[in-house]
Specification:
By secondary structure, the protein is of the alpha/beta class. The strands form three sheets. The chain has a 13-stranded mixed beta sheet, with helices on one face. It is elongated, with a radius of gyration of 25 Å.
Length: 348
Amino acid sequence: MKRARDRLSNLPNPIIYNILSLMDTKYAVRTCVLSKTWMFHWRYIHSLNFNPETFTKVSAFRKFVLHVLRHRRPFVVRRLKLLTAYTAKSRNPSVEKKVLDYAASYGGLEELETKFDSKFPESIVQCQSLKTLKLSTYSIEDLQDSFDFASLTTLQLSGTSFSQTHNNSFDIFSTCLNLENLILINSSYGREIFEISAPRLINLSISGFRLQNSIKTKIEISAPSLVNLNISNLIPQGMNFTNVVVISAPRVKFFNFRANCRQTLSIEKCSSLEKMNVRVFPPVAWRETYNWEQGYMFDLLCITEGFYGAKSIDISFKFSKGKFKSYHVNSGAETEVVEIIKAHKRVN
């Protein structure tokens, strides 16, 4: 029987290293048992991906991580993905810090994704080569005074707390001069003004943002290069709280806005807007309140007034007794309402 040809092993070593770098580091290391040729390939990977959930014991994960750091060839780590255990009992902060320090020590770290709720290591704060940073479950106030990643182009914050800042306003993004993509997911904020100011920001997405201020929160977006804006589910303290979103983005073309509570939009210098979608789907318990519905209808009129320059607007509200839709389509030099649908359905 003719033996199958091992094409993978015949690939140039740099290609093999790239392939292994795309894998979970645990499985990349396991390739050492394939043959003598493969025994040391994993030591040349340029990306590290550590996930404690693939280990049955915390001690086994710690032992594995230290083994990799000890035997990997000493050169730049381009990408690091460091996940942490779900429970505090399974956490090992000293190992997590050791991995972060190791990745930053050679310089050239470009991408970092980690779930980290301890104090951020100084080695990462000073890592000016970072281009992509994804943080989960982290209190960002620890970085407020030193968040100046000059090369950062993509920032994603998930489950992040902005609530313990000492000032009424908060803006850490203005120091990231090359930031192009900003994603905020399921985070929280507890002060009066939340500022997003970034000169080169192109894409901005905010979803599940919990606003914990006892009065109201004002979100100010100032981004002269912004093109795509997505805002969904800003969560207030209660149904009687109205939050204000102020947008100043002269180049924004596409705006998607989804709300489950009352919001006030203030539009400034958005002359390039081409398409806007607004969806308002309040919780069922809120839909029965007449005053609340009337307030929302007033907000609808205010929203449409702010976007008369848009080529296309689609706004829909959903209540227990009806659904409202309005479509605005560009017609020559002016924007006119071409269709309004108002449908009521009694709830017995």
